[in-house]
Amino acid sequence: MVGFKATEVPPTATVKFLGAGTAACIADLITFPLDTAKVRLQIQGERQGPVCTAASAKYRGVLGTILTMVRTEGASSLYNGLVAGLQRQMSFASVRIGLYDSVKQFYTKGSEHASIGSRLLAGSTTGALAVAVAQPTDVVKVRFQAQARAGGDRRYQSTVDAYKTIAREEGFRGLWKGTSPNVVRNAIVNCAELVTYDIIKDALLKANLMTDDLPCHFTSAFGAGFCTTVIASPVDVVKTRYMNSALGQYSSAGHCALTMLQKEGPRAFYKGFMPSFLRLGSWNVVMFVTYEQLKRALTTACTPREAPF
């Protein structure tokens, strides 16, 4: 057995809630530069002509984007918006991941055998609920990641300044900009991520191909990351563009998607796919492996030990 041993006592909802938020923060700390590179690639071309040509593109590929940012803005630019990102994960992942099992049990009425439909419903519910809780932190994170330090004034000087500036200039609704595409995105992401992880893990255990330890968690998480990237990339690009847009640039998320299609073509919806996959794949592996270990460690720590006789 690799890592902490599985406990006989199932983890409580509180353990899952805290474990999910903590694991997501750890995963964000490790993979944040990839997420920043993804955002820069996704917004590239939105203010240019009908097509952003290779010659006019500032960022090219994952490594090229990271190297360009380090050269022109400094290495710390890769962590623009990290504070808001950690705030987001602590509130966001705690809900969408930590409450998933509880909501799934609610839909299955406590049955141990959950259908795919029940799992999808649980994933959609916790994903949408998480957006309702953490949307302002997501808006601030994207704005910070999108702003370049070189060649002009920065839009926001700090995380607190970003919250205040957005609320002052765009109103309270500005902090909830992009809620609709984000609800759709996170319902999709949660279903693809959690349900796929759930199904792959169950299949591996039932077929006795692996035991419930680190290799199984790693394999399940990697598969979940790939499936999530393929399914959620188009919605993710629209969400990023719309949340980062200037006031009045797009009338709605649908208008943003239509503008992208007209000006940049269908391929625009998969801009930043490679960093998205690298980020989601690595994020899923770190998050799920850490989450599984934290659940076992916290459950063991919280379980009363029998006094020796």
UniProtKB/TrEMBL annotation:
The gene is Ucp2. It is a multi-pass membrane protein. It comes from Octodon degus (Degu). It comes from the Eukaryota. It is found in: Mitochondrion inner membrane. PROSITE patterns: SOLCAR. PANTHER family: MITOCHONDRIAL DICARBOXYLATE CARRIER-RELATED. GO terms for cellular component: mitochondrial inner membrane. This is Mitochondrial uncoupling protein 2. The lineage of its organism: Eukaryota, Metazoa, Chordata, Craniata, Vertebrata. Belongs to the mitochondrial carrier (TC 2.A.29) family. Keywords: Membrane, Mitochondrion, Mitochondrion inner membrane, Repeat, Transmembrane, Transmembrane helix, Transport. GO terms for biological process: cellular response to glucose stimulus; glutamine metabolic process; glycolytic process; long-chain fatty acid transport; macrophage differentiation; mitochondrial fission; mitochondrial transmembrane transport; negative regulation of calcium import into the mitochondrion. One of its GO terms (molecular function) is secondary active sulfate transmembrane transporter activity. InterPro entries: MCP, MCP_dom_sf, MCP_transmembrane, Mito_Metabolite_Transporter. Solcar repeats lie at residues 11-106, 114-203, 212-297.
